[in-house]
Amino acid sequence: MHSKTSFLGIDGTAGMVKAALITALYVVITIVLAPFSFGAIQVRLSEGFNHLVVFNKRYVAAVTMGVFLSNLLASSFGWVDVIVGTLQTLITLLAMRWLNRHNSNLILKLVINTLVATFFMWIIALEVTLMSATTAFWPTFWMNWLTIGIGEFIAMAVGGAIIYSLSFFVDLYR
To answer: What is the DSSP string of the chain?
Structure first.
């Protein structure tokens, strides 16, 4: 017997359209706000879509593809950011799903997501530090993690509030 839901959580045309919509929104928001979306100091507001993974696993693929396309189209670090940023996103989203698998409190899920996303910014901080070819590696890494982490925290907090509010009007689980 075949399962209705695929491995990625994309079940038929409606699921594919929902995933594609989130991917497209992620790319558009990231590129429109590009001056704030890239670099050592960044607040990528499209990261708020990360919260959707607690509602449906299709959003793991959707957001990861959004990061891939955004970095491919607009990152000054080129393929390094495409690969590192995409893998970092995938790892982060899978960690969020895993950590929230037995949690039924939506607010707690969003808080956990915010903290997980902020923590995993160490990978992006490492990328930015290595790409900047600085001689003071550790001070630069810690400063990058601090600034990128603060930006991620802001983006996830704003995104969490929006997604939480939206969840009262739209069934994000479907």
So the answer is: ---SS-TTS--HHHHHHHHHHHHHHHHHHHHHTHHHHSSSS---GGGGGGGGGGT-THHHHHHHHHHHHHHHHH-TTTHHHHHHHHHHHHHHHHHHHHHTTT---HHHHHHHHHHHHHHTHHHHHHHHHHHTT-S-HHHHHHHHHHHHHHHHHHHHHHHHHHHHHHTTTS-TT-
